[in-house]
Predict the 3D structure of the following.
Amino acid sequence: VTHHETNYLNADLELAKMAVLEPIILEGWIRAIPEDVEKATKLTKVEHLNLSISTSEQMIRGKFKGKFSKEHVIRVMTEAVDLAKQKGIKTIGVNAEDASRTDMDYLIKFAKKAKERGAQRIHYCDTLGFDDPFTIYERVKALVAEVKIPIELHCHNDLGMVVATSLAGAKAAIDAGVDAYINTTVNGIGERAGNADLVSVILAIKYSSGFKDKYILDERVDLSKAWKIAKYASYAFGIPIPIDQPGVGANAFAHESGIHVDGALKDRRNYELYDFKELGRGEPEIIETGRNITVGEYSGIKG
């Protein structure tokens, strides 16, 4: 870690301590080994930590190459949790990397040991996007039934189901009686095929048939800056926003079919589940940012 990175991290942590970022809590994400805890607490003012270690048979064999066994993974994780507590870390999350490919009995044992040592939540990491909404629901519900600890979902999009798996995992945790947290990124940017998109997750909770009346979002969740934040992230990372990205993509409110155009103009609820203005779109720019009526071969007379 360079001194520039350390200064940057400490500046962010100081802003958090001053409540400038409220209600956001800044957390560190390090390996679940004592050496990383020692370094993180020595170099930064971090007060919240996530300790991550691989738990699947594939990763224990394929990454550690005989250096770690399943028993060693649990031992080094608990040592890291113990040290974090000694260093005054306020909240500790333990991450089971590749949880979706981890033997269920071992995953339960791992989570129980983490909780016994003082971890406040378990991160269920679908590191390769291996789970689907059905398997993650059953696995998370089974895990919570045995351990009774809040669950954080960290899912990937390798099979194109990341938002669905994240929501299904969160639903399982809530249905089993504990709090759930979903890791998201702006525009779904992340390793390989990406992570759960922040806006897509919020829209799904607010408007999908299975969530909108049962799971109520905090009133502080405000989508009015979603459009601008998505554009800023796209510019900052040099990664274009997919044109069909929910809510913020160029075509998210585009209509060409004559039947759709006619229906949307009569009442936007005919063909739009939510209003583009809710996401901060519609303000005049170089091009129209709200509803987009296009003329093409499918427009017909009504279009």
The longest strand covers residues 48-54. The chain has two domains: 3-207, 226-293.
